Amino acid sequence: MNSFQTALLFPPVWYYPNTPAEVAYLAAYLRTKGIEPYVRDLSIEMFDLILDDDWLKNIYHRLLQEWQSLDAKNHLSQQEQARYHALTPVAITGKYVVEEVNRAKNVMRDPACFYNYRSYWHARQVLEQACTLISTAFAPTRITLFNYQMQYDERSFRQVLQAIQATKEHPFLSILYSRWLPDILEKEFDLIGLNVTHPDQIIPALTLAHVLKKEGSKAHITVFGCLEDQFSFTHILDCLETGDASPLFSLIDSIIVYECERPFTRLAEVLASGKNLDDVPNLAYWNNGKMHVNPICEPEDIQALPAPSYKDFPLEKYFFPERVIDYLISRSCYWGHCSFCSIGAPRRSYRCRKVNNVLDDLASIQTQTQARFFRFRDQILSPSYLSQFAQGILDRKLNIRWTCRARFESGFTVELLRKLRQAGCIAIWFGLESFSERLLNLVKKGTKRETIEKVLENCVQAGIKARLLTIVGLPTETEQEAHETRDFLIRHHKQIEDFSYTPFILFRQSDMAKNPAHYGITTLNYPDEGMLAYYLDYTTSSGMSPDEIQQVSQDIASELKKYFPSHFLIPTHRYLYMEHYGAGFTDAVSKEEEEPAIEGEFLEWRPKVPSWILYGTIHYNYDFIDEQQQARDKAPNASNKEAITDPLTPQEVLLVYNIETGERWQMEKDAAFLLASSDGKTTIRSIIEQASNIFNISMDESQQVCSDFFKEALGLKIIEFV
């Protein structure tokens, strides 16, 4: 098969931006079968390309021209006000963001800068503002460091096809045509595998497939992926009788359901030899006007799998100061009863790799990547397995740090957790879901509340951090039950390092979707062309309404942030900081800085605007536009739409942004002179004299105005004194 060319591509965007483990496993497996794949993580490549000054500056200048055109108008219509609202922050902050974005990326990758919290936090905000700039250019698409969300429902073929054609809303298309397509087409691949593990990848993956075929690729394009917990194309097996798959198979040639190692290898062999696709296990494909699904084979023996290969990934481009590797010890879930979950569906049976094999893999990966930090992406690992695993690490003296996921089980004793900590465990992610006794029983967690509290206490004693995964809006959940979970998190906030608070999704392959009446679900609503509908809309007989869930979720999340001061950190970044600073972690990431003492007479102070404070004069009342826009966003169909003045006439104001905190202030336009004069060299006395002349006011009045402004600005941290 030397002349047969195979590619494994990981489309954007995965919400845990790191090395895609499933691609690493398949690449290594194919090599044992004599197939050398071409491997690319297009997700991290996309972020590296779009978060770049060369790419951003053209977008910024285009947006700036659009804003200047609106700002110069004599009035703004309602539609123009909405666009002006989005463009104004970019107009004021964009130049700075473009200039700083490359440095910000380097901060994330350089230990000397990353572990300086002020430098880290500034870089993080610059990158997020860069994403905002891109989102504004491709609106209404929203891009963050973790998401790629278009206005189209990825569950609908019709809307996916619309998204593929929406060139003005689809930055992935721009990158694909300008940077990737020529290289991929030139290699003339025979087989291209697209690894899709998250919903945000659906539209980019199908866009990639569409463009490749449109531009002349002769490759057989297959989609695979089942080792993560958010999405798997395996759910199409539920649609054999009810869904029309022809639109999907107009974009791709096949889908591999369940685990991919054996089926993908066989697909390559069959294509290379010209045999029929019906000889490929686990393959779904279109033939003679209908979808065929070949017999399902047993997955590869997990003990026989080679160590995953990470040599193909650009490890230097991930946003970590040291190598961080994702690894899977097991497949599926040994518990497998949670009624809200669809993890078991695409993987069929739970298998766990033997400890010695895992340790061999980790040693091999360390040699290959120099990685010290591992994220074990297993759905859960048992106390008994973790005990053996930790002992193996200690016996071999492996120098690694790691995190994993687990259930709340009584087996997590203080003794075991101390052993795990000694073996390098930093944190365990526990699935709490809810602290309501009724809901825990409803979702079949098999967890007792006293066990939850005891395990948290044991984690604290052992020095292991606990991250709790919770869900809001479970079917029939009441506001009181949501508050039970909130109160539990607050009560134990000193024992919990962090939490996630995720809105409930009714996964199509979950027991809740298969037996809705048992869970109080009264109706299930399928999107049009529902073959892609990995989750379903629904109604319930009792509990909170969707609007109530949204409001309660926002209120609780806002309240919880008060008790979790490091919640704003990306989880993996938090663990890296913990290891770096140890007991000094909390002090290292404190946002509060001691105010420097300012000596001497006030009039001799020299004010200076920090580099992260950006400002500019604009010709419309931004606070008013913002207030009206928020009203429309909260109730888009309500009569308050009529409350927006149309047209809006000019009113020149000064807008000030703190790029590190996201705060914004609107001021009188004359304040622009005072900020422009705050250069760190000019005294307040001199500024008062200049203001008196420029604004034709008395010295006494100028002193009063300037003194009031600078004292207020100091309190807002808009200026500092040198």
TrEMBL record:
<dbReference type="InterPro" id="IPR006638">
    <property type="entry name" value="Elp3/MiaA/NifB-like_rSAM"/>
</dbReference>
<dbReference type="GO" id="GO:0005829">
    <property type="term" value="C:cytosol"/>
</dbReference>
<dbReference type="GO" id="GO:0051536">
    <property type="term" value="F:iron-sulfur cluster binding"/>
</dbReference>
<dbReference type="InterPro" id="IPR023404">
    <property type="entry name" value="rSAM_horseshoe"/>
</dbReference>
<dbReference type="GO" id="GO:0003824">
    <property type="term" value="F:catalytic activity"/>
</dbReference>
<dbReference type="Pfam" id="PF04055">
    <property type="entry name" value="Radical_SAM"/>
</dbReference>
<feature type="domain" description="Radical SAM core">
    <location>
        <begin position="319"/>
        <end position="559"/>
    </location>
</feature>
<keyword id="KW-0479">Metal-binding</keyword>
<keyword id="KW-0411">Iron-sulfur</keyword>
<dbReference type="InterPro" id="IPR051198">
    <property type="entry name" value="BchE-like"/>
</dbReference>
<keyword id="KW-0949">S-adenosyl-L-methionine</keyword>
<dbReference type="InterPro" id="IPR058240">
    <property type="entry name" value="rSAM_sf"/>
</dbReference>
<dbReference type="GO" id="GO:0046872">
    <property type="term" value="F:metal ion binding"/>
</dbReference>
<keyword id="KW-0408">Iron</keyword>
<dbReference type="InterPro" id="IPR007197">
    <property type="entry name" value="rSAM"/>
</dbReference>
<protein>
    <recommendedName>
        <fullName>Radical SAM core domain-containing protein</fullName>
    </recommendedName>
</protein>
